[in-house]
Amino acid sequence: MTKIGLEIHSQLTKLESKLFCSCKANYREFEPNTNICPICMGLPGSLPRLNQKAVEKATMIAMALNCSTPEKIAFFRKNYFYPDLPKNFQITQLNIYGDTSVGGTGVILVGEKKIHITRIQLEEDPGRLIYEGSSEKNQITLVDYNRAGTPLVEIVTEPDFENPKEVREFLNILSDLLENLGVSDPSLEGAMRADANVSIEGGNKVEIKNIGSFHDLEKAVHFEITRQQSLHSRDIPIIQETRHWDDKRKITISSRSKEEDLDYRYFLEGDIPWVRIGNEVKEKLKSEMPESISSKKQRYVSKYNIPTQVADVLSSDKFYSDLFEDAHTKENAKEVANIITTDLMGLVDTREKRESSKLKPIHLKEIANLIQSGKIARTSAKNALYEIVKTGKELSNVISELDLGNVSDESELLQIIESVISEEPQAVEQAKSNPQTINYLVGKVMQKTKGKADPNVTLNLLKKKIQ
Amino acid sequence: MNIKISALQFTREVKSGNISVEDFIAKTMEQIHNVDDKLHAFLSLNEKAVDQAREIDKKIKSGGKIGQCFGMPISIKDNICIKDTKTTCASKMLENFIAPYDATVITKLKQQDAIFVGKVNLDEFAMGLSTEFSAYGPSKNPWNTDYVPGGSSGGSAVSVSAFECVASLGSDTGGSVRNPASFCSTVGYKPTYGLISRYGLISYANSIEQIGPLTRTVEDAAFMLNLITGVDPNDNTTVDNNNEDYLKDINSGIQGKKIGIIKEMIGEGIDPSVLSATKDAISKLEGLGAICEEISLDMVKYSVAAYYAITATEAGSNLARYDNLRYGYDFPVEGYEFNSYIEKARKKLGPEVTRRMILGGFVPSSGHAGKYFLKALKVKSKLTRQINDAFKKFDLLISPTVPILPFKIGEKINDPAALFLIDINTVTANLTGKPAISIPYAISNGLPIGIQLIANSMDDKLLLQAAYALEKTVKLPEVPI
User: Fold this and answer.
1) Residue A431 maps to which CATH number?
2) What are phi and psi of B479, to 5 degrees?
3) Mean pLDDT of all residues in B147-157
4) Domain count within chain A
5) Which of B97, B208, B321 sits opposite A86 (nearest CB)?
6) d(CA B434, CA B431)
7) Is residue B77 flagged as an active site residue?
8) From B118-132, B141-155, B196-210, B320-334, the region with the lowest mean pLDDT
9) What pLDDT was estimated at residue A213?
10) Which of A106, A154, B266, B292 could make an S-S bridge to A117, C-beta 3.0–4.6 Å?
């Protein structure tokens, strides 16, 4: 049986500052080595100053993943030499001397399947290495410490996955969950990274490191299973090793460094006293936690009668559900959900588009109301949405500028209908015996009005005229 | 002008207008120039000290607000960061390290208008008890320059003892403040762990070390504590002392206080003159109304072993950053694989640091941790339990600070194990986080002997009161320089 376990690193990108100093947690906008201070550079004499917010957010993640949360947590030093590590040790957490990391064992449902969480730990991200140079021989390594000290949560699972599809489903659920909690933005480059361990029946465990995105994680796992199966089919033993994911060539390659032989000499970080996370703190955090995705979904279905599939899409995406929450009323909820999941989705399908979008909840509310009151056609609504996302103008202005209002004057509509009837004698004849054909005529009217006619009114008028 | 006065006397003299800060600082700098060639307390001097003194005089004349130090000349151990100043840790590795920030204690003293006359010598990275392991040469004991001044805060003790400043800040990981204080006949204070911020103190063994003052009198130590203790957001291990005033009621006496004489600290290997000084001090304390009784803390026997296992582990980690990529850089990286580069780079560290780094790589390593590091932690917690039990019965504990007299320079440097054992009386306070003080008590054959008092955590005030009482029973000759 194929067994896959994951170690997922998620940055707490929504935090203001780094884990042990007041430099920005969002290092991405800075010139290299400008988001640094004596603490995150590990200068002699500096001491870590624990960001309590990071402890709280990490605890929230543990609770959201149904993990046990200890009364007191501690930090440990993981000692190893690497140029991206300012102190040549990383401050992290460890459970071998008792459960002292933010989260202990937990479980999360992926479809029907239970995926067990081994532990969740809070740690500092190292700096970033950038390799430059045309060939291996004249390669230089640049170090950017802007990232050093960024709060990172490591989520370790049991080897409960059996195929890449389960891995992908889990990752989707996890990244939606983290986003919904408001702790992390999974779409930011480098915010989510992972290691995986993969073994097939009769083979040793192979660890894959350096997977920079969830998308690649699935690919890496798939590649590795195929590689191991191919070795196995030729009776070549699968050795226990660490392999690196080459994200350019999309393959795993054997790692020359003997990572498994490293001795990290873990010991307690004396500069950070144990942190007590008592029941009162946990209760407070629980009350601050946003509604879970599954609870949202259930609410959308039961309270507003939104179809399950639509509710699913809406609840699992924080961007959509936030819009929905702010725009909906009891009366327009179904319509707002509909607009978001059919018309808006294509307009804001990337991170960049979402960031530049000028759409406000009030726009959605107004559009829904106009559709419901028959003042604007669905196709026009879509055009209006496109314009609003781009410009953020008021809906009424957009409608008049683009002339999107429905042809509400019945005599004007009758004129158009009559001209269609005279242009399409054949279709009119057919429509008399075959009611389906009448839809063709409705379409013609819509064409002439550029979609601004109310389809129901048009249909009724057409029926009257033909009979 | 007499510069041989205490810190508190200095502030009184300046306040009353009897002396000018400029004169005093100039005289102090002159003293440094006169004696330091011989003593080598200083690694670098503050060239602007006299200018700074003049500014303070001006401020005093114009009636401006003056900090409690009134321009007091203070020396700082060279492992504590002063902004824009070289902080070398007496190591070649940090030969050119200029701290870009002030340690919290420095910030606090600057706010009180202290003047830092210079940075003083230590054993490299504070590892040692004689300053012989300084990469820049040993300091000499002002009582007899053939002898070591103790360490690692040797420069601090020498500068206070030889009137090159009125007070100094050192750091104490296993006795590094108290040991040189004892050897040079000054007061040396190691506070309760967490009482003084370590932010800006270059870590050696961070879980047990503290910054501490070296002064001429117990009152001066209390005065310094008033200025530098308290919670610091930059050091998560600091504790709240409710702005305790350590000077207030310092003369409360020790009537009725129970003092335990630690049996394991006056046993085998103790110098007879040290033993008799200790017995003398005990009878003096009894004369002041204290009740003294022997107590056994048998874990003390293992304390030095535990101390070296723990400090080596922490040092191996704290000093790992000195890999020559970021500090001590003096040869190009080209042509080296990362690990071989580090191996070569770290040759800049001296013999004692190297010894402890190697030990620190071994002691906590998988396969050996159980036998050494984890066992050391067990000793630490058992020792802590024992001393906590002792404090249920006693208010204070007493021992000689060091079981032997100062030794000659070069005498023990090639015998690390013998050097290690000298720490036997001091490491307990570090391993258990308790406050401890060394008080100058006697001179034997021209060499100083100090007495150590230990109190329970956060009983620093009581400790100073007892030390003050004992100090008052002593009259010592002036240092022969």
Assistant:
1) 1.10.10.410
2) -65, 130
3) 97
4) 3
5) B321
6) 8
7) yes
8) B320-334
9) 85
10) A106
Annotated catalytic residue, options B20, B75, B77, B91: B77
Q: Do A273 and B80 touch (CB under 8 A)?
A: no
List of chain A residues with pLDDT < 70:
134-137, 256-261, 406-409
Q: List the one residue out of B75, B219, B229 whose CA is nearest residue B160.
A: B75
Give Cα separations from A132 to A27, A117, A135, A396, B434 (angstroms).
Answer: 21, 38, 9, 53, 53
Which CATH number belongs to the domain containing residue B73 in this structure?
3.90.1300.10
∠ CA B239-B242-B246, rounded to 5°:
100
Q: Do A245 and A160 share a structural domain?
A: yes
**Residue A303 tokens, joined:** 């309270």
Task: Say if residue A396 is in the same domain as residue A265.
Answer: no
**pLDDT for residue A444:** 84
Q: Looking at the structure, do residues A297 and A276 belong to the same domain, yes or no?
A: no
**Which residues are bridge partners to B442 per DSSP?**
B449
Out of B130, B139, B152, B185, which one is annotated catalytic?
B152
Query: Mean per-residue pLDDT for B372-385?
Result: 97
**For residues B340-363, average pLDDT:** 88
A137-143 contacts, C-beta under 8 A, 24 or more apart: A141/A83, A142/A32, A143/A33, A143/A83, A143/A84
Residues A114 and A223 in one domain: yes
How far is CA A197 from each of CA A9, A19, A224, B32, B89, rounded to the nearest angstrom?
14, 28, 9, 65, 44
Please write the tens of the pLDDT for every residue from A22-58. 999 999 999 999 999 999 999 999 999 999 999 999 9
Strand locations in B41-129 (E): 42-45, 73-77, 115-120
Determine which helix (DSSP H) or strand (DSSP E) holds A153, and give its type and residue range. strand A151-157
Residue A260: the pLDDT is 52
Contacts with B237 from chain A: Cβ below 8 Å? 270-273
Q: Rounded to two decimals, what is the model's pTM?
A: 0.90
List beta partners, residue A275. A73
